[in-house]
Every structure is written in structure tokens, then in C-alpha cells.
Amino acid sequence: MKVDVLLGLQWGDEGKGKIVDVLTPKYNLIARFQGGPNAGHTLVFDGIKHVLHTIPSGIFRPDTMNVIGNGVVIDPVIFRKEIESIEKLGIDVSKCLVISKKAHLILPSHRLLDAASEAAKGKEKIGSTLKGIGPTYMDKTGRNGLRVGDISSPDFMHKYTNLVGKHKQLLAFYDYAYHLEQLEFEWFESIEFLKKIPQIDSDYYLNDALSKGKAILAEGAQGSLLDIDFGTYPFVTSSNTTCAGACTGLGIAPNKIGNVIGIFKAYCTRVGSGPFPTELEDETGVAMRKVGNEFGSTTGRARRCGWLDLPALKYAIMISGVTELVMMKADVLSQFDKIKICTAYKIGDTITDAFPYDYQAQGAEPVYEQLNGWNQDLTGIVHEEDFPEALKTYINYIEQAVNVPVSIVSVGPNRNQTIIRKNS
Ligand code: GDP
Ligand code: IMO
Ligand code: MG
Questions:
Q1: What is the pLDDT of residues 391-417, one digit of tens each?
Q2: Given this model, what pLDDT does residue 424 score?
Q3: Burial 120-141 (b: 16+ CB within 10 A, else e)
Q4: 3-state helix, strand, coil in the chain (%, to 5)
Q5: What is the mean pLDDT of residues 346-363?
Q6: What is the dihedral angle through the alpha carbons of 320, 323, 328, 330, rounded to the nearest 10 degrees?
Q7: How far is the CA of 14 from the centre of ligand 1 (A)?
């Protein structure tokens, strides 16, 4: 068996949570491999909306094991709230969720540092979700971090105090005012709570499961254009959101990766700062935001909206070796007579479809192709045959351009508003 990977190909919020939930019945285990509570993965079924931050999106399906891998960073306070809200639905989370001992912990002082760093950047800020992600990964790579497995170590308090001491020095450098006591109280309470969830050697656990023939889906967070190496640096997150992140974030060898399922919206959104060449700062963008309900699942911030960017999509497909595509939110484009797709960038006198080193500095302008809209409600469609011709043309156009098949089309937020295409 191999591990399939599902990951976002844009700037996050593509609809990963929904599709992982839809695909979960095909798998025995769902494993998150990077990111932390900066993620907000939305699932809608039985008339209820659920937003997950750290917990894999397989949690609502029976007989599925959910694994939080070593590449994830965990805020015990947020994690506890998530678990409590899931337990209210009668799910015994301690039986279907395990955490890697090697996953790193987000401390309250990491969140303060995130806020202090963003405040110091002023207009240049990243637009972080302020969940402490950057500082926690900095401590991980700086070899100062605390891991889930440290909780039960006798010198846990000593390690914690040392690290917070370092953070206090940094906060003094930023001249940032804060009150740590209440935050720490809540954090230590949540650390006790966290002990209820089995802590495992997730690398062995997953490889053993593979050798026993179990089907595993790795669930990405954020999107490829927010990848620390390949995204629109420095306006990125602090982990590898691309396929390689599934190897390092779970302990899965590259030759054990199977299908790579890349998910994208039929248009583009971005929340936070950073370049976005196809952004629409006009009434078309406002209409996309309104119909697409484009407000952050984690922070509630309005998402910036724009047309589909094919060069960026091709780049993300290349970096992750995407084998099949899932197109989300086709229904949101039903309102437009004409739909634009960015096919290349104009940089000076050059037309290129290469993803630029620095969009902003290089002054990349999108070059558009215009296609007919379908002007038809898609939200009740259940068979691919009933797609309007213009939608079929739109999908074909994308498939031809990127040379990867679109196997699933989503036409609404609900679990059942999902069309699995016959070619898949
Ligand atoms: P994720 O972070 O990739 O899991 O995506 P989010 O949950 O942050 O954002 C996706 C949003 O779009 C959520 O509000 C979903 O309920 C919603 N959604 C998902 N698929 C569709 C779709 O096909 N059409 C519409 N209109 N909304 C969708
Ligand atoms: P999901 O998994 C969209 C963005 C933030 C900011 C940048 C850095 O729901 O798709 P961070 O908090 O990581 O330091 O923020 O990345 N960002 C996301 N945007 N969806 C996400 O996750 C995101 N996680 C982080 O807005 O621009
Ligand atoms: Mg999201």
C-alpha cells in the first residue's frame, strides 16, 4: 500500500476539509502532516458546519483512525476546545485520535512572539493568523522546542521555564507588553487534558499500518503557495505544505507516496498579505467574496478574491507531483457571464508562464483568456452529465493546460454536493 496525499494548490482554504471528509470512507487512517491551528478546515453535513484546526478531517467518520503527525504544531488550549466540541457529538476522541510524540507544542509565549513580530513589521506584516506558528517552527529548527513526548518527562517544567525565559528576552527586545500568567494557567490545564489522547511513535505506527495493508490519506493544511520554500516568500507560513511535507511530517518514505490529490478553487483566494496577481479589487471580487462566503474559517478575516491563476497552479502541480485534481466552488462562478483565466504573466516585455521569484518586485501582470460563463445554478447537480456545456469547457480547458485530470468537482459546501467524475 501507499499513502495518498491531499493538499491545497493555492493560498489555502481550497476546501481540503470537505474533500478529506468525502474521501475518508475509502481510507483506514487520516493523518495531518504539518501546520497547526492556523488551519481552519470546514465540513458541512446533516445541516451542521464543523471547523477543525488541528484534528484531521476524518474524525466524524466511524472506523477511521486519525493521526496528528510529527510535522504538526499543537496549541493544547485550542486542541482541547476542539476535542470538547467533538465529544459533545458523542464521539469518543480518545479512541479514534492519536498524536505523535514528536509533534511540537505551541507555548503561550510563542503566540505573544507572533503578535510582537507582526506588530513590529507594521505595514510589512505577513498577516499571520497569530496562532504562534512561526515562532514555534523557529524553536523547532533552532532546536529549542518542546515536544508532546516531553510532557511526561520529569524535567518538563525545567525545559518549559528555560524556553519561556528565552522568549521573555525576545519580548523585551520587541518592547511588547503582555500578561502571561492567565495564559499559562489555561495552557497547563490543557496540557493535563492532552494526556487523555494517546501519544505514539507515529512514524512506526503509520509504516506498520502500511505494511498491514491499511489505506492512509495524508491531509495537508494551508496551500502550496504558502509553502516555506516554494511559496510567495516571505508571505508564507512556516512549514512545507507541498507533498514533501507529507514525507517529513509523517515519516513516510518518498517511494511510499501514492496518489497526490491537488485541490483548487475554480478561482483564487488569499487571506493575509502578499502578492496576488489576479486579485480583483472591484465589484467582481466583492461578488465572489459574497457568494463564496469568503471569510476566514480561523480568523473571520475577509479573503481577497480573484480569477484562477494557471501558471501558479501548474507550478504547485509540478512541485508536488499532483496526479489528480479536485475543483472546488464551481457554483460560485455561476453568477458571471464571462470568466477569466490567467494563462501567463507579462513581466516587462516578456510573456512567461513561469512562477516568478518575486511577483511584486518583478511587476508580474496577469495575461487573461476569457471563457463563457454558464449562468446556471449548479448546487443541485448530482451527475456530471448534467453539467452545463460552458462548465465542461472550463474544466477541459484547465485539464489541457495543466495536463492532469480533474476527478472531483464540488458544487456546494455540503458533503453531498460533490461530483466524482467518471474518468477518475
Ligand atoms: P480548507 O481550509 O481548505 O479546508 O477550506 P476552508 O474550510 O477554510 O474554506 C472553504 C470554504 O468553502 C468553507 O466555508 C466550505 O464550507 C466552503 N466550501 C467548500 N466547498 C464548497 C463548494 O463547492 N461551494 C461552496 N459554495 N462552498 C464550498
Ligand atoms: P487552511 O489549512 C489560508 C496564511 C495567513 C498568513 C500566512 C502566515 O485553512 O487552508 P501563519 O499563521 O501561518 O503564520 O500565517 O499564511 N494562512 C492561511 N491562509 N488558509 C490557511 O490554512 C492558512 N494558514 C495560514 O493568513 O497570510
Ligand atoms: Mg481553511
A1: 999 999 999 999 999 999 999 999 999
A2: 60
A3: eeeeeebbbbbbbbbbbbebbe
A4: 40, 25, 40
A5: 90
A6: 130
A7: 6
What whole-number distance in Å separates Cα of residue 1 and Cα of residue 250? Answer: 15
The percent of residues in the chain predicted with pLDDT above 90, rounded, is: 96
DSSP reduced 3-state for 331: helix
Q: Which residues are catalytic?
A: 13, 41
In ligand 2, the atom with minimum distance to the C-alpha of 38 is: 24
What are 228's three cell numbers? 516555506
DSSP structural state of residue 384: G
Query: Of 329, 361, 362, 332, which is closest to residue 345 (Cα–Cα)?
Result: 362
- Which residue, by CA, sits nearest to atom 12 of ligand 1? 15
Q: How far is the CA of 282 from the centre of ligand 2 (A)?
A: 24
Interval between CA 362 and ligand 1 midpoint (Å): 32
Instruction: Using DSSP, state whether 256 is helix, strand or coil.
Output: helix
Q: Where are the beta strands (DSSP E) in 194-256?
A: 199-200, 216-219
Which mutation among 131, 237, 240, 328 tests ligand 2's pocket best, with the greatest number of atoms within 8 A of CB? 237
Ligand 1 atom with the smallest distance to the CA of 41 is: 4
C-alpha cell of residue 412: 456546494
Annotate 74-104 with DSSP letters as a single string: E-HHHHHHHHHHHHTTT--HHHHEEEETTSE
C-alpha cell at 22: 468525502
Residue nearest to atom 23 of ligand 2 (CA): 222
